[in-house]
UniProtKB/TrEMBL annotation:
It comes from the Bacteria. The keyword Translocase does not apply. Pfam families: FAD_binding_2. Keywords: FAD, Flavoprotein, Oxidoreductase. Residues 5-358 form the FAD-dependent oxidoreductase 2 FAD-binding domain. Its cofactor is FAD. Signal peptide: none annotated. This is FAD-dependent tricarballylate dehydrogenase TcuA.
């Protein structure tokens, strides 16, 4: 409720959380392997389970488990149109290995994600500034199935401008930079925009509750770029960057390397340093080390930036997935506009995540939604298919 500002379906949010209780057993039974939780810089050891090998390893394990059960998987295939007739999907129109295919299915699960790689769709909500967004994943997540369903009267939920948006290294590629381009230095830094001004409390809360707001914050700045500034004593407090840090022996020289005004950055750093209050620094908790008299003040982890080399990172909005999606219930059943439930259409993952995430993000919650509602959708589709035998 805190990270979304109350913009969530509380019943579905609780359904997601409860569903994670036995998710690990289910995942392990289908070939997913886990590793010890990360600790230290990410503050996730208490709350998050980590699977070994990342997302591709997870998906590959599921594919192998499905094939072992005798399930046919059509690779090199793309759904073009889902034909909605009243409360049913009557026909699935697709292309498979270059040839048209038509499938009449007893039940359909849509798990095709959002539209984060569709820049024209992003511009509908964001305007031309969307040209400066970096897409953390595949360039193929264009929302074709989502758009097709919404155009046929399937109920939508969520804001087209809300998304999982992380402040990533501004030197990352336009697509497919992945998780390694994320920068976790923000809580231990000051962040300035292209004019050299701070614009948000860098120490508002622990990073797993705030890292996914920073992409949106940077998107609202001039040129959709910002810069994190730290000194030598902070450099080991976060995961190392995939691109080399930009370093200089003085704040003025660092400003020059970042393309910022040297006088302004020196003034901002000096004002920040003077505003830091006495306290006991602790990067593992909300430590209350704060500033006083700044706009905005920094609430935690505030220490003077005085120890060379001085270090900077350019930040750009990195879009992971969008929140506009289809409306579902606790059984993952998709609804039409007007409140009619679709009899044989179910949704899972990012295509319905807006039901839970109106805005904001909590670390690991996308995976939780995908897993819990993937299982719910599969169960619902199986029941529907059995009824129609």
């Amino acid at each position: 409720m805190r990270v979304t500002g109350g913009e969530t379906d509380e019943d579905l949010a609780r359904r997601t959380i409860r569903g994670t209780v036995d998710a690990l057993d289910f995942m392990q039974a289908h070939g997913v392997r886990f590793q010890p939780s990360l600790s230290g810089t990410l503050s996730l050891a208490r709350t998050n389970a980590f699977f070994l090998g990342g997302g591709k390893s997870l998906v590959n394990a599921y594919y192998l488990a499905a094939e072992a059960l005798g399930i046919d998987i059509l690779y090199e295939s793309e759904v073009e149109v889902l034909h909605v007739e009243d409360d049913r999907i009557a026909l699935v129109e697709m292309t498979s290995r270059g040839f048209p295919e038509f499938v009449r299915a007893r039940a359909v699960v849509v798990a095709s994600g959002g539209f984060q790689a569709n820049r024209e769709w992003l511009k509908e909500g964001w305007g031309d500034i969307a040209e400066n967004f970096l897409i953390r994943g595949t360039p193929y997540a264009r929302g074709k199935v989502l758009r097709n369903l919404l155009d046929q009267g399937i109920a939508s939920i969520g804001d087209p401008t809300q998304c999982h948006a992380v402040a990533i290294d501004g030197r990352a590629p336009k697509f497919d930079g992945g998780i390694v381009t994320r920068l976790d230095c923000v809580p231990f830094s000051i962040v300035v925009n292209a004019n050299g001004d701070r614009f948000y409390d860098e120490g508002e809360d622990v990073w797993p509750k705030r890292y996914a707001i920073w992409g949106r914050l940077v998107a609202q700045q001039p040129g959709q770029i910002a810069y994190a500034i730290i000194d030598a004593k902070a450099r080991k407090l976060f995961m190392p960057s995939v691109f080399p840090a930009i370093e200089a022996p003085s704040v003025r020289e660092l400003a020059g390397k970042l393309g910022l005004d040297g006088d302004k950055l020196e003034q901002v750093v000096a004002s920040y340093n003077a505003a830091v209050q006495p306290g006991t620094f602790d990067n593992q908790r909300l430590d209350g080390c704060r500033t006083s008299g700044l706009t905005p003040d920094k609430s935690n982890w505030a220490r003077p930036i005085v120890e060379p080399p001085f270090i900077g990172y350019p930040l750009r909005p990195g879009i992971t997935f969008t929140y506009l999606g289809v409306k579902v219930d606790a059984d993952a059943r998709v609804y039409r506009e007007g409140g009619t439930a679709m009899r044989n259409l179910f949704g899972a993952g990012e295509i319905m995540a807006g039901s839970v995430l109106g805005k904001g993000y909590l670390a690991g919650f996308g995976m939780a939604i995908g897993t819990v509602f993937g299982r719910a959708a599969g169960n619902g589709a199986a029941r529907e298919a059995a009824l129609l035998r």
